[in-house]
Amino acid sequence: MVGVGWVVLIDDWLARGGPAGAVLAFLIGGVLLLPVARTYGRLVQEIPDAGGEIAYAEGVFPAPVAFTAAWTMVLAYAIVCPWEAVAVGNLLARLFPGLNSVPLYVVAGKTIFAPRLAAGLLLAVGIAAVNRRGIRLSGLVQDVLTFGLLGLFTIFTALGFARGHASNLPPLFAQPGTAGALLSVLFVLQVVPYFLTGFESIGKESEEARPGFDPRHFGRAITASLVVGFLFYATIVAAVALVFPWKSLVSGHLGTEAAFERAFSSRAVAQVILFAAFLSLVKIFNGNFVAATRLLHGLGRRGLVHDSLASIDSVRGTPTNAILLMAALTVGATFLGDALLVPVTEVGSLAVGVGWLSTCLAFWARGRRSGQRRVGTAAAIAGAAVSIAIIAMKVLPFVPGSFTRAEWIPFGLWSALGLLFWSLRTRKPADRSGPPSISPVRG
After folding, report:
1. What whole-number distance in Å separates Cα of residue 359 and Cα of residue 347?
2. Is the dihedral of CA 277, 282, 283, 284 positive or negative?
3. CA–CA gap between residue 88 and residue 256 (Å, rounded)
4. Buried b (16+ CB within 10 A) or exposed e, 348-363
5. Residue 230 to residues 23, 30, 293: CA-CA distances in angstroms?
6. Residues 353 and 193 sit within 8 Å (Cβ to Cβ)
7. pLDDT digits over 300-358, tens only?
8. At 268, which CATH number?
9. In the predicted model, what is the mean pLDDT of the chain?
10. Within-domain flag for 41
11. Distances from the Cα of 106 to the Cαs of 78, 337, 397, in angstroms?
């Protein structure tokens, strides 16, 4: 869930909402998503399937509707991968300014530099290689990076709160007045779903859990990850705003590490933050890559795309072709450079809204079919309402901050790619009898 946006996009969040607007948006957004998380937790316990959203929708929605929801959810994960591949160059250039050399071309006013592009491409190849080796290695990498990030985060946020000054906070909101405060929260709230995406990805790896794993823990992990995620973002915004005047940060297009460096007059503090950000970047890249490839595998296994995506490496037990496809998409999009960073967050928010809505409605529909009121129905209905609101914020043109052409173009291209994959479907689902096809023990 937590990538590198808290370093490279902190100025965008503060420009949208100010410190109070951004903190409130992450807290409100996280709490509103709790019903969605609880619904996922219940469905993963019932249906531990790599197909995720497509598995939950199977049998209650027509195949084209279920495919549309799942394909859009693939976008939510897939779009993060090139974002992180681009962001690694942005991050490393803060440590080594010499990387901003050898300009190649310009995309949307952003120059693509050869060393930064090479760093992103190498990271993409490395993540794909780790995933080819198997889920054990991928999971180990994820554990080390996650706990390393949280340890470093505790250190520098404690410093921020200890040395920060409340005088740096005003104005609390980016827009003046009561109406301005509401708009400030809304502008940040529109990208919050993208940055909190990931709690539901647990379901995509559920087939690869160790033998004997208690399925009730899936739901607990989903809820815990959401809570830790939105508290992380709210805390880092507050810490940055306390240590450095946020208006100056926005006008100077500074990142989190620059704010701490100037406040403490210490390059070492900035380097700790950048190292934490690097761990965070690799972690979220790996996590989203795993989720996207498992969802693609789930689509292939059901014959909703070409069944080549259902293939499993006989030695490593990993979805080989899904990994190769995801790697190719990531590498191709990485060539767009920094122009990806802000529009991707908007597109990702819409994509997850569609996937979350499908899951909540599927839970409700399954209860209707059984003729019994299931525990969690109220949460599913509330989650569906929140998901509809997320979608509406992005697609209704009269809502401030809704999609512009910069966001509709990549979303349209992904939809067109989905139509192509749907047209290539095998129509006959692959054999899904017997044990899960993705191995939890190999690799």
Report:
1. 19
2. positive
3. 15
4. bbbbbbbbbbbbbbbb
5. 9, 5, 25
6. yes
7. 988 889 889 988 887 777 889 999 999 999 999 889 887 766 677 778 889 999 999 99
8. 1.20.1740.10
9. 87
10. yes
11. 23, 9, 29
Is residue 330 packed enough to be buried (19+ CB in 10 Å), middle (13-18) or exposed (0-12)? buried
Would residue 428 count as lying in a domain?
Answer: no
DSSP 181-193: HHHHHHHHHTTHH
CB 205 within 8 A of CB 215: no
Residue 52 falls in which region: left (phi positive, over 0), alpha (psi -120 to 50) or beta: left
User: 436 lies in a domain?
Assistant: no
> Total structural domains in the chain?
1
Task: Sort residue 63 into left (φ over 0), alpha (ψ -120 to 50) or beta.
Answer: alpha
Residue 238 falls inside a structural domain: yes
Range of lowest pLDDT (40-44, 205-209, 214-218):
205-209
d(CA 89, CA 96): 10
Which amino acid is it at 440? P
8 A C-beta contact, residue 244 and residue 168: yes
C-alpha–C-alpha distance, residues 172 and 161, integer Å: 17
What is the identity of the amino acid at 325?
L
Residue type, 60: V
Q: Which domain holds residue 231?
A: 5-423
pLDDT of residue 337: 83
Q: Is the peptide bond before 211 cis (omega within 30 degrees of 0)?
A: no
Calculate the alpha carbon distances from 188 to 12, 256, 280, 378 in Å: 9, 17, 21, 27
